[in-house]
User: Fold O-acetyl-ADP-ribose deacetylase from Catenulispora yoronensis.
Amino acid sequence: MPAPCHRTPSIKMVRGDITEQSVDAIVNAANSSLLGGGGVDGAIHRKGGSAVLAECRALRAAHYGRGLPTGQAVATTAGRLPARWVIHTVGPVHSRTEDRSTLLAACHTNSLRVADSLGAATVAFPAISTGIFHWPITDAAPIAIAAVLDTPTSVQEVRFVLFDDAAYEVFTQTWREWKQ
Assistant:
């Protein structure tokens, strides 16, 4: 596959459920086990069904016996989801004493690299690490947007799919400020 070009994808903010997005790839804010969990991860596994879990188990058996490292990304089928693939990435747990922003950015960068390897033109991201990993949404939004804009990619459209009004407002305002 040729190297990705460095064009800026169209960026959209969507208030909604990431499991309902008709895109080539949905990014899963996974836990390192790849075997499902709460929040976005649990919703993707529930809606995607047994095919997603089976491929995650195969990845654990073949390459990720100790789990997927934070910031890395790997793809599976999307099963019953309206997407073609799920790109699983493990976000960092927020820390007040250690700067882990490069790991959060890497989740986006590596997910786009995986999307390019799949030939995905459209990708939907959740607000990675902002749920049970406690990353403040006001800090996560600029990191996520900057990482997407700074990554050479052939992806044509990136959607940030935000589950609640507060996250949607923060990401939308951050994007407005970025464009000015």
